[in-house]
Amino acid sequence: MAFDTFMFILMSGILLGGLYALMATGLAVVWTTLGVFNFAHGTFVMLGAYIAWQVTQSVAGGFGFMIAVVLSILVMFCLGFVLHFALIKPFERNQNVVLLAVISTLAAASIIENSVLLGWGPRDKQIAPPIGSKIDFFGASINTFDFVILGVALLTLFALAVFLRRTTMGRTLRAAAQNREAAELMGLNVPKLFAITLGISAATAALAGIFVGSLRFISPTFGADPLMKSLIVVILGGVARFTSPIYAAFVVGIAESFSAYFLGLYWSPALLFAMMIAVLLIKPEGLFGHRSKTL
Amino acid sequence: MTEPLLELRGLSGGYPPVSVFRDVDLSVNADEYVGFFGPNGHGKTTLLKTIAGLIDPWDGGIYFAGKRLNAEGTMRARVSHNFNYDLFRKRRINTRDVVDAGLIYVMQGNLLFPEMTVEEILDIAPRAARSRPGVAEMREQIHELFPRLRERWSSKIRYLSGGERQMVSIAAGLLAMPRLLMLDEPTLGLSPKLRIELSNAVRKIRETGVPLIIVDQNVEFLTSLVDRLILFDHGTITREIRAGDMPDHDQLMDMMFGGAH
Ligand SMILES: Nc1ncnc2c1ncn2[C@@H]1O[C@H](COP(=O)(O)OP(=O)(O)OP(=O)(O)O)[C@@H](O)[C@H]1O
Ligand SMILES: [Mg+2]
């Protein structure tokens, strides 16, 4: 294999990794805080992309990419915030809350997907990338925008980590995640903090969705792949630390990229699942940590 | 006569369908230290959790600083396999109202937030105080009360000893600027040395002017500290003892178990 091909595959893997990191962190934050897996996460990615696409269309005023990003993130934050009260809070006293939330979030995923299908139709759409140029990177020709995506994804994750660790607001979110009763005894409004968490998760999903939508075509069903990849990443990496799913995302992205080249596109999910099962057998708490649920 | 700071009238509660305490009447004045003593598992923690608003009271009233904290009337427990009553069941007491009023509960055996550092916890603790002033002075006092915490400032709670965790819990409770602080078994499982350190700190809290309700199994610790000792047995108050005639351990055992221990 030529070096430029190798670099090209590696770079696409790293780009995928950045996107997966963004998606999986949103899923992991909800899991560690609310204690449920959000199966509507993939449709959040998809809906975020559609909202951004709509904003850039001339019927909606033909706004620029940046405005589309900001609007989509805001709308998705609000949607996530509201959905906590519809999908998870009604069941939080139930001892089967994890199972009930699987079903309620799956239901939400189906409703969102079909609403998008009704509203925007089944035809593929693409968000025009704001930067079209390519640069030469160790012999491989890479889109400049890919570097922007990677940079913004990592910066967003860094900003989220700083928010959770350094700001009082972020600290109250972690407090509510770690000990609900003690947080209530501090006078914190735990349902609101949980809703904010789901909102943040939906907002990061939207950002990832917009990036995916400017790289590939979007359709109402494209949320399934981000959901599956996020689940694989979270299970593979574990959630012992904020960074565990991020490392795992790059492992998955690079593995997927190379397996797509050597084994073909159809084999890469099989390879990822095989990796996941192997990790579950050998190190059930995930590759990058030894505790199960922290933030 | 001034009106009491905290007043319980005929308070009952438990974990439905199990009733844990019944018809508890109590009033605590604004300058009082009140101790609770009773056998394990007889409902002291459940009573305090109810007052703090973590569990719904079944019946009776909780009044704090002249305001009623819980809903009027008796709780109707409705359980159905066909309908999720949680959907529109209203809480009969709201923890945030209790905290806002200045009634702060420090939990028994509190793990607090295992992955947060002492500094982070003491940073968010004053959120409970909302508009009550004096947080800055209280921070100073906390450093004097618990000098040990300063050495552990950036350790996670997970890595602290039981006594140090208890200190963080009490410090966080004090930073909420309580008008009444409820401590649930602060000396549980502590070594004698730590217990002395902690009881000295609790004694000093009095100088900050914060009244206390304190539940403990250690008779010497309690009797040396409180103005009034309340014996709690099988979910009710069986006896109240004033500061003048505090019993020692053996006398107390006689009172509680009629010498049959
Ligand atoms: N979450 C719960 N659900 C159901 N029952 C509970 C729960 N917590 C405690 N109980 C029961 O309520 C009763 C009273 O317990 P509680 O913790 O209030 O006692 P306590 O007087 O504080 O005891 P200790 O001195 O051991 O702290 C016990 O019989 C206990 O088994
Ligand atoms: Mg107790």
Structural commentary:
The complex is a heterodimer of chains A (295) and B (261). Chain A has 295 residues and is an all-alpha fold. Chain A has one domain: Orthogonal Bundle (ABC transporter involved in vitamin B12 uptake, BtuC), CATH 1.10.3470. Chain A contains 11 helices and 2 strands; from the N terminus they run ααααββααααααα. In chain A, strands 1-2 form a two-stranded antiparallel ribbon. In chain A, β1 and β2 form a beta hairpin. Chain A is globular, with a radius of gyration of 19 Å. With 261 residues, chain B is α/β, with parallel strands linked by helices. Chain B has a single domain, classed as Rossmann fold, CATH 3.40.50. Chain B contains 9 helices and 10 strands. In chain B, the strands form 2 sheets. In chain B, strands 6-7-8-3-9-10 form a 6-stranded mixed sheet, with helices on both faces. In chain B, β7, α7 and β8 form a beta-alpha-beta unit. Chains A and B meet through α6 and α7 of A and α2, β6 and α3 of B. Bound molecules: adenosine-5'-triphosphate and magnesium ion (MG). The site of adenosine-5'-triphosphate (ATP) has 13 residues of chain B, from β2 and α1. Magnesium ion binds next to α1 of chain B.
